[in-house]
Design goal:
Layout (H helix, E strand, L loop, with lengths): L2 H15 L1 H16 L3 E9 L19 E3 L6 E12 L10 E11 L22 E14 L13 H8 L5 E13 L15 E4 L8 E5 L16 E9 L9 E7 L7 H18 L2
Antiparallel strand pairs: 1-3, 1-10, 2-3, 2-10, 3-4, 4-5, 5-6, 6-7, 6-8, 7-9, 8-9, 9-10
């Protein structure tokens, strides 16, 4: 149906059931169309409580969002990274994409004269090499009792985790892939990180390979400020071609934001309020 045809249909509905109801129907048409794609995005930040952070109880320059040890500590700051959640389009299957991560990460060891591991001066600085990160997440699910069958994905799912409080609730993804691409010219500058560049999920001894949780590794005693009432992400990865190993490779990040209701949702709520007011004035 074209936009002109939709407008005519909305007009006909308005003449039959009243302007306010037509507004609601119109917005529902918009919402229905908008669901075929991204639902919302959140910024991702390096987690302050990583095992090789300078201070696991506070924010510091050695915090990281991705750790890819390859015989040495290899950590990456989430410099400008976004996670986008998607409403699936078409038939649902094992390859259906529910979320993506993309942006810029910074290799924290890359400016220490090529030496790996940490020294007293290690940490995020302007000389560190930057990479792009691209990850795709599939097979969404949950643990705990915050969500029922068919509840995911949903526009309020992150807020639901927060409302449930600290516990066993989580949004899970059973399948994902990850790729790193240098944002510098390797013809003139050698990459300090020399490990694998493509990865897939690694199943832990128990639980899912990737989870979104409330306040993971953010104890209320240490991170007491309400600013730390946040959603965190954690998961395990392994090289695409080499399989698992004894090296530590994992995600560990948090988001400082929870998405607010979309514009279309707010307009829909406004239309419902208008309809109620119209009925009350009769």
């Amino acid at each position: 149906m074209s936009f002109l045809d939709e407008s005519k249909a909305i007009g006909a509905i308005g003449r039959r059931i009243g302007c306010a109801a037509a507004v609601i129907v119109a917005v529902m048409m918009i919402v229905s169309a908008a669901q075929a794609g991204p639902m919302f995005s959140i910024a991702l930040k390096s987690h302050p409580n990583g095992n090789v952070s300078a201070d696991p109880n506070a924010v510091d320059a050695r915090d990281y969002g991705l750790r890819l040890d390859d015989g040495n500590w290899q950590t990456f700051d989430f410099t400008d990274v976004t996670m986008t959640f998607h409403q699936p389009v078409g038939p649902i299957g094992s390859s259906t994409v529910y979320a993506t991560i993309s942006g810029v990460i910074t290799h924290l060891q890359s400016s220490d004269d090529g030496s790996l591991g940490y020294s007293a001066t290690s940490g995020l600085d302007v000389e560190d090499q930057q990479w792009s990160i691209d990850a795709t997440f599939r097979q969404i699910g949950s643990q705990g009792d915050a969500f029922g069958l068919g509840d995911l994905p949903a526009g309020n799912m992150l807020q639901t985790l927060i409302d449930e409080g600290i516990g066993n609730d989580a949004i899970t993804f059973d399948s994902f892939d990850l790729a790193l691409t240098p944002l510098f010219d390797e013809g003139s500058e050698a990459a300090i990180y020399g490990g694998p560049r493509t990865f897939v999920e690694k199943w832990p001894a128990s639980g899912a390979p990737f989870l979104l949780e409330y306040r993971h590794r953010l104890s209320v005693g240490t991170f007491a400020s309400p600013d730390w009432d946040v959603i965190t992400g954690n998961g395990w990865v392994m090289p695409t071609n080499k399989g698992g190993s004894s090296f530590t490779r994992d995600f560990l990040f948090y988001s400082p934001q929870v998405p607010e209701p979309s514009t279309t949702a707010l307009v829909l709520l406004g239309g419902i309020a208008l309809l109620r007011q119209r009925r009350a004035n009769r």
